Amino acid sequence: MNMLTDTAIETKLSSMTNQPSIKMRGEKVDVFYGEKQALFGVDLNVPEQQVMALIGPSGCGKSTFLRCLNRMNDTIDICKVLGNITLDGEDIYDPKIDVVELRARVGMVFQKPNPFPKSIYENIAYGPRIHGLTKSKAELDEVVESSLRKAAIWEEVKDRLQEPGTGLSGGQQQRLCIARAIAVSPEVILMDEPCSALDPIATAKVEELIDELRVNFTIVIVTHSMQQAARVSQRTAMFHLGNLVEEGPTDKMFTNPDNKLTQDYITGRFG
Question: Helices (DSSP H) in the chain: which residue ranges?
Fold first, then answer.
């Protein structure tokens, strides 16, 4: 009850101060893979309709934290998540929560483009169909077109919707996967190094797209590229050895971080 009250107060305060309200909140998040602890007491708020970048050296826990936000870690038998993670004040680890519904609200785009072995049209239509979001073929057609337009790929594929999604270039496949995530009208989109398998031109297109999408979605992106974090995010969180080192506005983190670890990582002294 308190959490909802706190969230309501925060929403009111944020509207008065022009600060974004908190969409997701992680409190004292510990993650274990068997005996090995991967995250240590992470407290991190994800602001609404902004892009938050998670940075840090390999194996520091950033992807582990990202996967907590839509319970992807549930798919790993030996993984145990402790602490509290909420979406709009609601505990996403509550036993009453429908995980399928949660993953529709908190979508995910993976490092390597992974279109279904189906047509471009069916890649997008699949989610809305299984979630019962459309009532007719005409409505489904509309969702497919709208999602592909929002993912800035409609013009490239509109005449080949029945061709396999796997036949697209790497950059197009990743934008198709983003369109697929958008199609079920999520509130949050998680992106785990979405550009690491792409060339610079495709990367630039995806980055441009991320900037456009934050108008309607809350986005959390894991990236190894400092330049990318600086270009696309409004807030940045730095992880190291399973700990959250610091978090703040991206421009401050990159010009005047509070912690020397952050300074050293951003300037390439380690990691």
Answer: 2-17, 62-68, 99-105, 120-130, 137-150, 154-157, 170-182, 200-213, 226-232, 250-255, 260-266
Contacts of 199 (CB under 8 A, 6+ apart): 170, 171
Q: Are 124 and 147 in contact (CB under 8 A)?
A: yes
Amino acid at 255: T
> Considering only CA atoms, which of 213, 224, 216 is closest in space to residue 175?
213
Task: Taking each helix axis as running N to C, give the angle between helix 200-213 and helix 170-182, from 0 to 180 degrees, rounded to the nearest 10.
Answer: 20
Q: What tokens does 99 get? A: 């995980």
- Write down the pTM of the prediction: 0.90
Segment 208-257, tens digit of pLDDT: 999 999 999 999 999 999 999 999 999 999 999 999 999 999 999 999 99
pLDDT tens by residue, 144-155: 999 999 999 999
- Vertex 86: Cα angle to 195 and 74 (nearest 5): 65
DSSP output for 197-221 = TS-HHHHHHHHHHHHHHTTTSEEEE
